[in-house]
Amino acid sequence: MATRTRRPERRQEPLSREHIVGAAVELLDAVGEDGLTFRALAERLATGPGAIYWHVRGKTELLAAATDAVVAAAVTIEPAESAESADSPQDGIRAVALGLFDAIEEHPWLATQLATQLSRSPWGTVAPRIFESIGRQVCALGVPEESWFTATSALMHYILGAAGQNAANTASAGTARPDVDRAVVLDAVSAAWEGLDPDDYPFTRAVAKQVRGHDDREQFLAGIALILAGITAIHSLTT
Amino acid sequence: MATRTRRPERRQEPLSREHIVGAAVELLDAVGEDGLTFRALAERLATGPGAIYWHVRGKTELLAAATDAVVAAAVTIEPAESAESADSPQDGIRAVALGLFDAIEEHPWLATQLATQLSRSPWGTVAPRIFESIGRQVCALGVPEESWFTATSALMHYILGAAGQNAANTASAGTARPDVDRAVVLDAVSAAWEGLDPDDYPFTRAVAKQVRGHDDREQFLAGIALILAGITAIHSLTT
DNA sequence: ACCTGAACACCGTTCAAGT
DNA sequence: ACCTGAACACCGTTCAAGT
């Protein structure tokens, strides 16, 4: 039961802001949001708690920086991903969506953090990053300018929400055999929903069976297809 | 500077769970999530911190209960709202959406809390509540059963995300003159977005001007119309 | 300029003791 | 059964002091 993943290997490199944020992300991944402590972080960086404050204003800023770093990496499509990015805008949107989907799956704390970040300050650095990468594809889709905001927002909110909800199914236990784990959790959700009051929750109970055994990623993409259909339909675009 | 809204007026009614949750919501509204403290809550209830633990397992459960209480109130459409609810399913969806929109606007802490709740436990009580109320309308819309989950999810995530983001524009300062306040904040967001790097953020900058002066509620409903269009288009439903 | 680490104020939670 | 309130362990943050 060695919870502490000590790592005082490399001792003295001057301790930069990047270094701190990187360690914060690692700690977040390892022990979750509650585990991110200035003391634990300091130990991991082989210094005292006070040192961190020289590079970062406080915990709020640290969390924002960690979130931004992960989002930036997720949203920047590697050139290898799609040879020349000569794909359709739809493919581009799917790529961005899956990038965020995977990032949230890899860093479960991201779901809550993204919501906090967006609902706290839309003028921060993380909101524009996501908005821009989706918006460009919306633009390429031929959506008229006055609808750019609506279409991009709809996509962004669905992507963030659905990916976040999905992360709950993955992050229940350790990382061993995530596929098995997920099936178990999905079954649990399905069972819980089927156990709801028949009078109050007829619809949710009816859907419960569908949830079981469905592929997450497929479901996620189906939602995106739905919104894309709405975008093309409402503006009579050709597909 | 009397931040403390003391209220030891009514002293001794046995202190029930409902009472505690109600006081928690009040405190949350007054001082935000960071202000919800077992000590502050106890003071407001004219008891000690330990007493609360007799009725509630801990802070996590308290937050969940507070969220659930507000969501339950928001999602239950008052009979006065729509005489016999003989409206169209579309109207029903808009009603649910606006109910949540208003609730988040009234209780800004709800945005973060909802995301936390959904991404932590989809099998909790709050997710089914929202899912059910939206899903019934989706069902009434004539969506085929295998698409219930996708359509309802898309709507739910958009509603929660967009309403949450919107709350950020409202909750910046005190409650006096929220309309003026909001215009100011919207201008600030717009200005911040226009100040982004032209090379990295061409799309976001282009949209920045649209943001200014647009009606939030109208924007919100436009997004819902978009998703509804997708639903009816993809299943070739008649409107 | 950058780091140290003790100290401060505060928090969630527990629990022996009361009624 | 239900409440009290002191106590515990821990946290974010500060800051005089060091290098």
Outline of this structure?
Chain A folds into two domains: 11-57, Homeodomain-like (Arc Repressor Mutant, subunit A, Orthogonal Bundle); 58-77 and 88-237, Tetracycline Repressor, domain 2 (Orthogonal Bundle). Chain A is 66% helix and 0% strand.
For this entry, give a set of tags:
homodimer; 239 residues; mainly alpha; Arc Repressor Mutant, subunit A; Tetracycline Repressor, domain 2; 2 domains; 11 helices; disordered N terminus; DNA-binding
Outline of chain A, from the CA principal axes? globular
CATH topology of the largest domain in chain A: Tetracycline Repressor, domain 2
- Determine the CATH superfamily of the largest domain in chain A: Tetracycline Repressor, domain 2
Total domain modules of chain A: 2
Alpha carbon gap, first and last residue of chain A: 55 Å
Low-pLDDT segments of chain A = 1-11
- pLDDT averaged residue by residue of chain A: 88
Kindly report the greatest chain-chain contact and the residue count on each side. A-B, 68 and 68 residues
The CATH architecture designation of the largest domain in chain A is Orthogonal Bundle
Largest sheet composition of chain A: none
Q: Strand fraction band of chain A?
A: under 5%
Give the count of helical stretches of chain A: 11
Oligomeric composition of the shown chains: homodimer
Number of strands of chain A: 0
CATH class of the largest domain in chain A: Mainly Alpha
Task: Give helix % range of chain A.
Answer: 55-70%
Rounded to an integer in angstroms, the radius of gyration calculated over CA atoms of chain A is: 21 Å
Secondary structure class of chain A reads mainly alpha
**Helix-strand string of chain A:** HHHHHHHHHHH
